[in-house]
Amino acid sequence: MDPPAAKRSRGCPAGPEERDAGAGAVRGRGRPEALLDLSAKRVAESWAFEQVLSTPHPTLEKTDAQVEERFSRVPEPVQKRIVFWSFPRSEREICMYSSLGCQPPEGEHDARVPFTRGLHLLQSGAVDRVLQVGFHLSGNIREPGGPGEPERLYPVSVSFDRCKITAVSCGCDNRDLFYCAHVVALSLYRIRHARQVELRLPISETLSQMSREQLQKFVQYLISAHHTEVLPTAQRLADEILLLGSEINLVHGAPDPTAGAGIEDANCWHLDEEQIQEQVKQLLSNGGYYGASQQLRSMFCKVREMLRMRDSNGARMLILMTEQFLQDPRLALWRQQGAGMTDKCRQLWDELGALWVCVVLSPHCKPEEQASWLQLLGQWDKLDVCPLEEGNYSFDGPNVRPTVALSPGAEGEEEEEEVAAAGSRHTVFGRALQAGSLRWSDAHLQRILASDSYGPSLTGNVGSDKPIFDPQGHPLWLGEPFPTACARVDTLRAHGYPRQALRLAGAVVNTLRLQRRQQLETYKQQKKELLQKGSTCITNTEGWVGHPLDPIGCLCRALLEACRLEEETLTLYPDSGPEKRKVAYQHVPVPGSPGESYLALALEVALLGLGQQRALPEGLYAQDKVVRNEEQLLALLEEVELDERLVQVLRKQAGLLLEGGPFSGFGEVLFRESVPMHTCARYLFAALLPHDPDLAYRLALRAMRLPVLETAFPAGEAHASPLDSVMSNRFPRWFILGHLETRQCELASAMLTAAKGDPKWLHAVLGSIRQNIHSPALLFKLAQDACKTATPAGAPPDTTLLGIALELGLQVMRMTLNTMTWRRREMVRWLVSCATEIGPEALMNIMQNWYSLFTPVEAATIVAVTGTTHATLLRLQLDTARREELWACARTLALQCAMKDPQNCALPALTLCEKNHAAFEAAYQIVLDAAAGGLGHAHLFTVARYMEHRGLPLRAYKLATLALAQLSIAFNQDSHPAVNDVLWACSLSHSLGRHELSAIVPLIIRSVHCAPMLSDILRRWTLSAPGLGPLGARRAAKPLGTDRAPLCQLLDAAVAAYITTSHSRLTHISPRHYGDFIEFLGKARETFLLAPDGHLQFAQFLETLKQTYKGKKKLMLLVRERFG
To answer: Is 1000 in contact with 985 (CB distance < 8 Å)?
Structure first.
């Protein structure tokens, strides 16, 4: 397979061939590079330095006979060029190992990224004393200190081999995931200023040229310069060398840290494994935070970047991350508690599983590498804490095949397959393990990947059991499930094979097109039977949108990537500026398919996947993933600016979706539990509306269906709980039903807004809403949106749309009339305002038909009152006659409500009818009739107070007496709620005169048995009381005596009440209440003394108490002390 084309990575600097300074070549324009340098480059990339030398390397225990035979001694100038070119030449790789790629804190952007800091250090001249000895680079980095701090000096050393940095060391001691800024500065210096770096061969080559005296002098000077550090080690090595049988004398040669890696050593970039493990562990412990999830996703992106660069560290890093993920203590806790993991954590596990599929399916990995990965995955797969894959997706799903039968018995068979699949245990690593059995050696597949012009002219279908070309001669890829085929496409992209990925993606799209044609033909043959039946079995056992392998997303991204316009100037974080740059795409023609482009194919594939009729998967997370995946795909499509070519694709695909039958979510017949098409339809509606309104509306109206609710509720009927969908209780599988209903409402709102001014489509949308939307809360929102759209500021209203808003509001009122909710008052007020916008006829209409819309309380207190406020009348701009007609309608409504619910509506009716004598009298009569029918004393007292306030004291007195007749206050109810009402009634009767007072006293005596209350009333009446003049003015009246009627009867009742209450309290009195009882007797004496012989009566009463309760000696002692 060809290596990937060189392409600048987003957010990375120039590649190896784009920077002459990085190559260190100083040559004129057009001057060819020296043959020595060209050869040295190739050798430096692929050969260990040990292989280059003809003589045995001093670091090896054995010689390589083959190398000795093939090479003579390599001249020193050639060695130097090989060593020179062995350092990495691309800043892109330095960037990859010194930037995570996560979104930095707000306002800092690139400032904290090690690569950017290192670049700034390089540009500020902070790199000094750079020396390259063989495969070892060293230098000093001078970094300015903070305010008041001295300059800091950091010694840095870098080891490298075959254009890869294999080890780093820095004096800053900063432990981080990737290289620090000082290592970056030194590495960039070596790339950009390679000619200025002093170069020496490996130190072993220099030592081999010295005589014995020179070697001794060299060693002694080295020890002298660093005697405190190396003297103990030097003495130990000297002792071992002088010992003939020591181990060091048995080994041929000596190690040289500057000579590069050996033949058998692994050749990979330096990666701090311990730091990666620690970082992942820390981020998982902070899993509840958004930033932690983002950083972990950035690490996954880094793995993909390494895979794309063919860097073996990609798999190494993924292994380290997976091990930490499996050691997350929350896994065991969730399993023990039987609880599901959080959504953020679940998404991270999904990404982890998808990455492993890409790694295992690598088209260029060695068999032993794949075997080791599969062994690890098998071990992880068996762990109890390993998360299971969510949803009921098959692992041996149907192949991408050209024909599909609509068998009536297929539904039962599919259910059996689903049950069988659900019984087996599939972890998130199951698909990666399955990918281990896939191979790239198929001859047809190899030809697809190798050429854009592969067709029937190169080969035929001879000997093949399945077609390998479509009728147009384009290659097909059959024989494995569609998600697996798309996983191959994603793997090719991930490993840096974009052209091959495009070729395979084209073959998969050709197969999908052929399958769709066959499906349409099958449907046409059985269309009549299916339409008569009215329902269908699901034709796709598993959906492609929301699938664990994300097949549609993989295919779309591969196709769109080929059409993406790259910008010239890019930063590490292209989206971190004040405004996110808009992605631009262009049409790239598909080889061998005139008139087609990859951009059009991406749009077609996305619509085919989004419009697929499919069953909703099982499980909350799996269902949520369907929604999330759908939104991600639509976000991709919204980035694409539609031109004329794409609009034609859109129209064609929309038409196919409408004609797709049971294979399309927009087909005429739907499976009961198929995924709704609301979100997809909203995109299509907005995209098609400017170009083909008729098609846009037909598609959107077809998508308004929500089959799972249509089978449960007849059109227009409400849920049992109208504001919150209860289908999740009746159908536990539909965890996201509330979200789906909201999307349905958004689609309807979009259509209503777009249809403004078009009565035909407005009424069509209204009919669809009535038939398909069953949630009153959403219907109310639609009504509000429609009303707002119909009444723009500064423009005349759209009467048709206003009428539809009112119709929806009336439907909500009818649906929620018998299931009261806290939002009813808001809904009623809005309905009145909407009717007001339409005109007086609409307002009077809802008043006249209030029985089917409102409760009596709502009608009397909100509808009638709001409909006749000053603001409403001004808004309607009515003449006197029309205004009076509206008032009459409101009064009629109020009286009807008062008759139906006098307890709550009598007072509002009286208030509303104040200005009309006949209506007011009718309302008053309703109250009197209700009093006989059991209207409570509290409501009668309220109306009575209202009557007094209106200047009708006699009517108030009448109602007060009716209330007293129903009242009963016991001897111990001195805090009864009606106390103040009784005192007010007594004050009213006192002010009216002796006749009214005499009439009310028997009622008081009969209704009130509380002694303190009776005493209070008595004292109030003995004071000088206000009277009423002819016109209701207050006047003074003579105080009444307690020795004459009618107060003498009340006094007797009060005294009797005190006597009765005293005996009642003494029956069960405890010593702690003795003090309260003495105070009670004090109040009783005050009442007794109001009578002419009160003193004698009280003394007799006390004597009776002493004789009766003489056993309570302490209490009687307190009585004697207080009263004698």
So the answer is: yes
